[in-house]
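quick one, 780 residues, struct below
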Amino acid sequence: MQQIEFQESEESLDLRKIIGKYLVKWPWFIASMLLFVIVAFIYLRYAVPQYESTTTLKFDKKQSDLTGALIDLDNLGLGLGNADELKSEVAVVSSRPILMKVVENLNLNIQYYNSGEIRDSELFVKVPIVAKIISYNNTKKFISSQYMVKEVNGNEFVLEDKENKKIKGAFDKSLALDFGTVVLQKVPGLTFKDKYKIVFWNPIEKIKSLEKKIQVDLPDQKAMLMDIKIVGTVPEKSEAILNEVTKQYNLDGLRDKNLQAQNTQEFIDKRLEVISRDLSGVENQKEDFQNRNQIVDLQAQAQLALQNTNDNTKQLLQQQTQVDLLNSLQNEAAKGDNQLMPSNLGLNPALEQAISQYNTLVITRNKTLKQATNENPAVIEMNKEISSLKEIVRDNIRQQKATIQASIAQINSQISASTGMIEKVPGQSKIYRGIERQQNLKEQLFLFLLQKREENAINLSVNVPKAKIVNPAYTDDIPVSPKKNIILLAAALLGLMLPLVVFYLFFMWDDKIYNRTDISENSSLGVLADIPALKDDQLHLVQKNDFSELAEAFRILVSNLKFLLPKKDSAKVILVTSSVKGEGKTLVSVNLALTLGSKNGRSLLIGSDVRNPQIQRYDDERVKNAGLTEYLYDETTDVEDLIHTSDTNPECDVIYAGSIPPNPQELLSNGRYQKLISEMSSRYEYIVIDSAPLMLVSDTLSISDTADASLYVVRSGVSRKILLDFANKLVKESKISNVSFVINDVAKNVGGYGYGYNYGYGYGYSADTKKKWWQKLFNK
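---
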């Protein structure tokens, strides 16, 4: 009979399965989230809140209409020139000189704390004791030092350092400590109630801390605004720092402006004296130069000489062109053959006429030669005339060349005269322009410095702050850290993610078989039934009139198995096997035989795992030792002596494995096993064979041909998926046939196929004892 495969459709991604694996672990997720949220609440309870304080400055944009090389002096005025200058002021606000003044004025290098059992609260305003550092022993090595004010008795007190060393002192008197000398003073109106902690810092360390804390932003550069922010635990202290920063910044800008104005005043006065002397000298120099060179208008005279030079140069180029043409024509005329010569070249008319006559006569002679020979009298006469005309042409060329060359010499003489005049002009012009440039420069500087001296005097008399404080320092009511909602949300997410990651890693490395889906994804063989997990105190055998989870699971197995078994008059043989030991094949074999045995047909269970017999552990009578082994090696053994009726089900008989033989493979393959099956087939309706594991020994393969159907048992949570490849290989090689899987020891939380292992079907039967709520919570 062809095997029926209970195979589910394949899906590329089964989200329901993936999510379901995590949902069954929901108690761990809840516990993890609760733990993280509780830790977050504890952290928020004792965490010191951080508040952000802000102040806003506004800068005036400087307006300037001055131009010229010395426009940089316009910076003497108030305001900033552009947005780039505003960016540079960001570094000035948080510069170390300004922060040093802030630390000194606010005494920030000394911090006061109200000492508590869990955390210390910093104090800034209402401090009953104030300390001042008089001197340091070594500022380079000193970073910080803290002391506890333990006892205050009248005008005396006791300090305790980290090493619990006590130091006695008196108020308003110097006290030598390990880093330097300090003075402690009482604040009138405030009484000493609690323990106080005083931390002394190196001022440089506090400056470094302020450099990191203070943030300067430019919200709108066009509006020339600047936001200065700081985050701290004491809002009053943060606001005092910001107000002091803006105060020192304006004072620093005012000092720079006044110092620059004073230096500028001195510079302008000195320069005015020098420029006055230089201006008088330049004017005298200009007058002397004009008298010596008799210059009225140097530019006009130079322009006339330049125009004459340009005209003569054009004529010279034309004459040189004529010479080049005559040289080319002369080369043509010097040739011995009577060829035509170029005409209409724009030369002398007499030369052009002679060339024209020559060309006409040459053309006439050439036409005559087409009808006569060179000895013809007419041709001879024309040759004489051509030679005479050619000589006349040569003479005209020589005469015209001589005339042009004379003209070129005259033009060159005129150019030389004009060039000489022009050559004098640059030197004179250079000197004259230098004198005028000096004069103009001195005049402009003189007038400019006079104007700046007046502006600088105005600046000295005006004390306007560099930046206007738009918003004095203020603190937001909501702390920037810790943010309660974000921390609680993050704690909940971390509580959710931690078990998620743990279970993800567990599932990723877990290659065990748990349910039908694990089998269907790795094998095409069907699954007939899921056998529920049993506790030690539960019955492991199916009883008569049993409605437990185990009994219902085997009834389902029998129902599905009947579809696989062939229809025949003899017994239907069912082979039960597995890959390795411990997967529960004996449990399945025994309970299957007990379930199949009924009044309609008896069942027989044969213990065929002769190497490791396991059926005997389900029988209370240990004396039944004779079995299959004795039958296989002794032909005289009567099979009737080997058959035992089950105490659990009288319709079920059992043949035990018997003694463990030294050669089980030879016994199972000697043919007597097949003879036993054939003999028992006429007496029973079903024969169940409990065989040896296939992966360990080959005993089962020797008797697999007797089976009508094979049940391959895997154990949920124990068997590995790689064993399915072994089973698939056996089926592919036809070593076992008509194979289906049975999943044993399936936990409730691995179900998902409608069983739930609470069988009763309305009859009110249930094998589970009542559990407490917490047991149900962690066993779902």
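DSSP finds 19 helices and 21 strands in the chain.
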